[in-house]
């Protein structure tokens, strides 16, 4: 979310930066302008979501600047600041659909409350615009350029880095039930949860940060299904979870994946997830064994490509990168805690040749095993 502060007094800019925690409030970018002329130009280029503007400024006062911005069609939600409690200023501000009119000197608590209100209004409007576009994508099965732009900007506004689609099918829970259940969890874990209705299905776009994982999505779907079961134990709710994406253009694909996953046998997805969660501790304890992707996939009776994809989704790291990490961590412990030769450590941590172990160790830590051991001795 972007904020533009417009005032000719440098002291006000400094004061606001000092007393307001912009990032904690949800602003990712804050820019400053020092007259109405500069502000009008910056609104076109910076495209703020919220603007704080003084009325009395050189070159172009606040009211005239707002009129120019309104003509361009890019007027953001605006808070007017004024040292004058005059009716004509307030009247002009209302005509320009200014959100709030505050008197100077600025009361930080009052401004914080007003900004909080505007942020909530902005977020609600953005979610509604995404929901509207998502309904169109669900109906048509394609995403047009205009919809792509609206959804992309909306997710950027909500600071969503990664997203997925969940589909629930059952005729019993109402849309309000789903929204209530989902929001109960979204407050703590997700940056947006947007619900749409499609015949008997509830389709949910779930957005999060870089750490959004398949495990979180599964927890969310299980929470909803538990709520539905408590509402009516005789009804069965099915759920489908798509893969996680960053590109909005993939939304039609995610919708199809989620719908297909909903009708797949339940044990297919759960068996894969269960296997992945058993594979991780197996790697932790069996680092000296053959841990090639093919070998481990065969051991747990799953496809190696499914294993690779599912492991990354669940834990946020590539399977082989995790194997290397476990082996290197153990090798470092052995170098410091024992007097074993490199050849024995290599064999103990799953390397067939000492030379391969030494190259891998240096690539991982930036020093040779000998140098690592020597540095630990000096530190002791």
TrEMBL record:
The modification 4-aspartylphosphate is found at residue 54. One of its GO terms (biological process) is phosphorelay signal transduction system. Residues 277-375 form the HTH araC/xylS-type domain. InterPro entries: CheY-like_superfamily, Homeodomain-like_sf, HptR, HTH_AraC, Sig_transdc_resp-reg_receiver, Tscrpt_reg_AraC-type_HTH. Keywords: Cytoplasm, DNA-binding, Phosphoprotein, Transcription, Transcription regulation, Two-component regulatory system. One of its GO terms (molecular function) is sequence-specific DNA binding. This is Response regulator. It holds the Pfam family HTH_18. It is found in: Cytoplasm. It comes from the Bacteria. Residues 2-119 form the Response regulatory domain. GO terms for cellular component: cytoplasm. It comes from Cohnella herbarum.
